[in-house]
Amino acid sequence: MATIIKIDPVTRLEGHLKIEVEVDSTNKVINAHSTGNMFRGFEKILTGRDPRDAIHITQRICGLCPVSHAIASVKAIEDSFKFKPTFNAILLRNLIQSGNYLSDHILHFYHLALLDYAKGPTQSPWTPGYNIDFRLSDAENSAIINNYIKALDIRRKAHEMTAVFAGKIPHVMSIVPGGVTQKPTAENISKYKAYLNEVKAFIDNEYMSDLNLIASKYSDYYSIGKGSGNLLTYGAFDLDATGNTLFKSGIYKNGTYSAIDITKIKEYAGCSWYTTDSGDKHPSIGKTEPYYGKAGAYSWLKAPRYNAEAYEVGPLARMFMNKEYTRGISVMDRHMARGLETKKLAQQMISWINSVSTTQSVYTQLGLPTSGIGVGLTEAPRGALGHWVGFSSQRVTNYQIVTPTCWNVSPRDDFGQMGALEQALVGVTIQDINQPIELLRIVHSFDPCTGCSIHVMDPEKNVKAKFVVSTPSPKGVF
Ligand code: NFE
Ligand code: MG
Fold it and tell me: Bridge partners of 31?
């Protein structure tokens, strides 16, 4: 009889995620399901509001990647009337978004992923935990845990750096259609630089050497957790006014790179708790109507697909598309690419902050047309992020958000194809099924964020939530 291993909730990630795998008699995973246990009602909240509210409301989806939601949202609105901010404004937006990346990637390595590889102190909140396959010497372990503590302080500084031009963080105030409302001055430029120098030194020294240590001790993880093998990016961070970007957009499939065609994106909902007509649609005409208890469904995440196939998004996809890291696709490749991307970005930020002008404008006063449609594409720390907006009478008629974690952690689509994480779990052999550390390492390598929501529910505990259609629990799905 097959053995089922269930981890619910998976901790050290944002949001509520359950994974359930089936192993054969050799403890090899032969089937996997990932479930987002939390309903995100943001798209419904936005309907009927001024489109500009979306810049602030969508940031509340998450405290980890709020800036990228602000950027995607403002770009969608500006796209609806083909407005481009001044390059000086774009530089400030880059500095706000990249500041958020640095704190987020450092958080992921030290505070979310590291305890899969290093032993934390033997007190709460580091215990209880799995006690298996820790390979660092005592001296190495103690040094890396010291950097875990130091990283808390560095993250705070990265946040303070971001707030220099953002007003505050998380949930920034200064990004508006037309540009940025925080004026660059000699004083705030030098403040930003001082923070950046300190955060960059930590990345170049501690983060890089700790990452290399983990990669060398766990080099077998370069051949574990491949997933779909397909990579997708929208590109982000304008480098000039002509549309060149620091992170390139594209598709990587079967060893071949090609341009992305966003008309080939569709979200499917066959295995998601949404109505049938919420699926099989391009996001520009998308629909997100909850239907909890739908037969065969097992997640609140929809399944975005490109050309009807599952793709992985994130730092590894970006470094591949830039051809700056192409060693492979695996657990450890994801960590390496995320670290190298952090280093690259911190270096680039020096050039951006040095290019900001204190005399050129960062804001153009704009009105909002009565009606329009727009798309805002960017790269959030976890990967490709898209917002699609439609409005009339200056009120949102449809707003659809497709997040990176939807790409990576999606359930099966209408064709029965697993999402990237589910595919990555299949094939791994577990040493000790009572301590399935291999599963955690695979899940954490994607840095999932299953999102923040006001409607929290656990289908197995029968907690009442709004929008719930009362039908039997979906236990039978597995
Ligand atoms: Ni909540 Fe996010 C990022 C976005 S995840 S962290 O990065 O958008 O899907
Ligand atoms: Mg959505």
Answer: 22
Give the pLDDT band (50/70/90) at residue 451. low
Q: What is the DSSP string of 411-460?
A: ---TT-PPPHHHHHHTTPBPS-TTS-HHHHHHHHHT--B----SEE--TT
- Between the CA of residue 210 and those of 39, 114, 207, 217, 442, what are the distances in Å? 36, 10, 5, 11, 19
Whole-model pTM above 0.90? yes
| pLDDT at res. 450 | 78
Strands 245-247, 236-238: pairing kind: antiparallel
Q: What pLDDT digit, counting tens, does each position of 365-376 carry?
A: 999 999 999 999
Report the pLDDT value the prediction gives residue 464, as an integer from 0 to 100.
35
Atom of ligand 1 nearest to the CA of 62: 1
Least distant ligand from the CA of 314: 1
Report in angstroms the alpha-carbon separations of 394 from 179, 280, 366: 20, 28, 14
Contact between 192 and 165 under an 8 Å Cβ cutoff? The reply is yes
Residues linked to residue 191 through DSSP beta bridges, in sequence order: none
* Encoded tokens for 205: 């020294």
Give the other-Cβ count within 10 Å of 266's Cβ.
Answer: 21
Counting ligands in written order, which one lies closest to the CA of residue 453?
A: 1
227 and 329 in contact (C-beta within 8 Å)? yes
Contacts of 321 (CB under 8 A, 6+ apart): 231, 233, 235, 247, 248, 249, 250, 252, 257
- What is the rounded average pLDDT for all residues in the chain? 92
CA distances from 459 to 41, 140, 230 (A): 17, 42, 32
Residues with CB under 6 Å of ligand 1 are 14, 62, 64-65, 68-69, 380-382, 385, 403-405, 449, 451
Centre of ligand 1 from the C-alpha of residue 66, in Å: 8
Q: Is the pLDDT of residue 256 over 80?
A: yes
- Identify the CA nearest to 431 among candidates 440, 418, 422, 423: 440
Whole-number Cα distances in Å, 316 to 89, 103, 310, 330: 28, 18, 16, 9
Ligand 1 atom nearest to CA at 61 = 1
Q: What is the pLDDT of residue 1?
A: 67
User: What pLDDT does residue 157 have?
Assistant: 98
